[in-house]
Amino acid sequence: MVIIAPILVGLVYVVLMSLIHEPHRRRFNAVMVAGAGAAYLSGGGLGIWEFAFTAVMTYVAYRGLESWTFIGIAWLLHTGWDVAHHLKGAPIIPFAEHSSFGCAICDPVIAIWCFAGGRSVTDFLRARVGRPAV
User: Is the dihedral of CA 53, 91, 35, 110 positive or negative?
Assistant: First the structure.
């Protein structure tokens, strides 16, 4: 369940984000990943590096305002930061020991969707289900 739940969270995120129409979906996701980049800031588990990481994520998220690829890169950067925090023992949610581990599994699911262009999976499903059988 430690692995399945984060994958499901990533898939739910993709479905919910698919309900937002473009170009708002891309811009909203850029803002979301910028926020994720600052998620560890208050914990300070990696010291001054938390500020450097937040600056890098801010830049990549800014580029993501116009590019799904940059949003995907940002989610993968966050995955690396999750792994570093998990190994350090400084989880994203202080009272949930494996929260950074779960985040490191969830984030690549979102990144894959971003690298695929952040397309609406709900629109895709509607088109498939709504087609008459031939």
Answer: positive
